[in-house]
Specification:
This protein has 210 residues and is of the alpha/beta class. The protein contains 5 helices and 9 strands. The strands form 2 sheets. Strands 2, 3, 4, 6, 7, 8 and 9 form a 7-stranded mixed β-sheet that branches. Strands 1-5 form a two-stranded parallel ribbon. Strand 7 and strand 8 form a beta hairpin. Helix 4 packs across helix 5.
């Protein structure tokens, strides 16, 4: 039989048990919901390429662009003021930006049909050409109170067999959204990215012959 002295010796343990039990029943505030966005699918129709200038019976690999910081994750970047890189709250891209960028370019190139095969850096197939580079900007920048989508990409066309650079060029596209809301900004990202893909497609044939 436990004496009063023995009971008092267990009081600290009893209080600890009660505290742990109550803390387990505490209702934590629910995390705010997050909305995930993907880029709108490219809308361009397959290109009709004249026989004398096509010559693109080639295979191409498109790799994830190099980037860092906020642009390496899934946050939708915004520059509210000069040199202040931030992100829209409560929204994310469905994939990290480098993967999102790569997959969207691949889809545009496949729709175009100019190359016999277009794959990614996750494929192991040997290819004739490789397109990579550095993604310098993939964000909305506020100008005079209005957002402007900016995509800046330093492209490198490589010979994957010799590991040499065949050509390089900086591309920059801008697109003004129809409004300041996130869905309008995402739609502008889609338009800007499609323009970038078309510029890359027009550049590659001449770049590979340099």
């Amino acid at each position: 039989m436990m004496t009063m002295k023995g009971l008092w010796a267990h009081v600290p343990l009893i209080w600890l048990f009660l505290l742990l039990t109550l803390s387990g029943c505490t209702l934590l505030p629910a995390s705010p919901p997050v909305t995930f966005y993907r880029l709108p699918s490219p809308t361009q129709a397959p290109t009709q390429i004249p026989t004398q200038v096509s010559g693109m019976e080639l295979t191409l690999r498109i790799t994830r662009p190099e980037t860092s910081g906020l642009l390496a994750g899934t946050r939708i970047a915004v520059v509210p003021q000069d040199n202040q890189l931030s992100a829209y709250q409560g929204v994310r891209w469905v994939s990290p930006v480098p993967v999102l960028w790569r997959d969207q370019v691949i889809e545009a190139f496949q729709q175009d049909g100019r190359f016999r095969y277009v794959g990614s850096d996750e494929d192991s197939w040997p290819v004739d050409l490789e397109l990579g580079g550095v993604l310098r900007a993939f964000q909305a920048e506020y100008r005079q109170g209005r957002p402007v989508v900016v995509i800046r990409f330093d492209a490198r066309l490589l010979d994957p067999h010799r590991r040499t650079i065949l050509a390089s060029r900086r591309f920059e596209v801008r697109e003004t959204p129809q409004g300041a809301e996130v869905p309008a900004v995402v739609a502008a990202f889609g338009v800007a990215h499609e323009r970038l893909a078309r510029e890359l497609l027009d550049w590659l044939p001449a770049a590979r012959r340099r």
